[in-house]
């Protein structure tokens, strides 16, 4: 399962550890509901996942631990991006909008 966000931090091991710990604390042993959109990236299904009706992608991006992936989100999460987060993270090529 893949959400339309990019939690890939460019070669910053500590940031990756923080992202993993954040997600683990957020969803571990909790019921998560995902709405798939029918597309795939890297053989993973794409969709929006919710925890208690809260969009997990918005939560992670708002926490400064991920970036919006506009190719799959259509820019849905751009408003949640934390100032400076894009400078620390590299948006994967598969998230780029195709011309």
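Q: What amino acid sequence fits the structure above?
A:
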């Amino acid at each position: 399962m893949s959400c339309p966000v990019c939690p890939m931090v460019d070669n910053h091991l500590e940031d990756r550890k923080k992202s993993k710990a954040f997600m683990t604390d957020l969803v571990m042993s909790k019921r998560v509901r995902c709405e798939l959109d029918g597309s795939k990236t890297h053989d993973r299904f794409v969709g929006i996942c919710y925890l208690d009706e809260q969009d997990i992608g918005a939560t992670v991006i708002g926490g400064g631990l991920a970036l919006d992936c506009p190719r799959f989100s259509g820019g849905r999460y751009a408003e949640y991006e934390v100032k400076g987060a894009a400078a620390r993270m590299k948006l994967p090529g598969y998230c780029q909008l195709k011309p």
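Q: And what stands out in the fold?
A: The longest strand covers residues 33-41.
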